[in-house]
Amino acid sequence: MPSPPLARFTFISSKLLAFCALSPHADLRYAHTLFSCIPFPPLFHYNTIIAAFSRRSSSPFLRMLNDIVRPNACTFTLLLSKASPSLSFIQQLYSLILRLGHLVNPYVATSLVATYFNHACTRVVRRVFNKSPNKNVACCTSLLTGYCNNSLVYEARKVFEVIPDKKRRVVQRNGLWLHQKRPNNSLLASVLSACAAISAFEEGKWIHSYVHRNGELEYHEVELGFTLMYYKLHEPNQEP
Hints:
There is one protein chain. The longest helix has 14 residues, at 87-100. The protein has a domain at 1-70. It is elongated, with a radius of gyration of 22 Å. It has a two-stranded antiparallel sheet with strand order 1-2. With 240 residues, it is mainly α. The chain has 14 helices and 2 strands; from the N terminus they run αααααααααααββααα. A hairpin with a 4-residue loop joins strand 1 and strand 2 (176-178). This is Pentatricopeptide repeat-containing protein At1g08070, chloroplastic-like. It comes from Vigna radiata var. radiata. One of its GO terms (biological process) is RNA modification.
């Protein structure tokens, strides 16, 4: 255990803490003891200990706020994605995220969307998504996957139809506005899996036509998604 004077050196203590908390040889008890020896832990130390104690991260987070250490986007992403927080804690985090302006970060928004979906808060999810100014493909994928997992195929299709693309062009048949980003292969595979699970054949065929128009069929995960969908929907004559 480093002496108190040594623990004051941020660089040394941060390396030791990261090794004790996050390395393959991690010792969480030792990491917690080391963290307790640091009189004024900086933000990096807090984020490290929050990442390590995923299911008990609310305690160091509260100490962080009491020490007047301002959480950053990484802090909120760790709390939401690793901690499996309660709904009341998520709501408190959401209020703090809005107050500190971190909803602008797409990773924070994506984590919020996924966490709210874990509690089946579908209406709140859409409000979070609409308020987020920087919606990247990961955020769109998280929203779409959450809708599909909750059997909300109509809502998922509406999201899919407005996913933007950099070329700002329109796909002819369904009016899919593409003006900042394109749906990626993970998103397409998620939708196909959901279509197969709930027998949404028409939606699956619509995605099939979209993929043919945009040349995504060469990717194995998308091709596998079509194979599984047509197999589950008993359409042996329809080849992906």
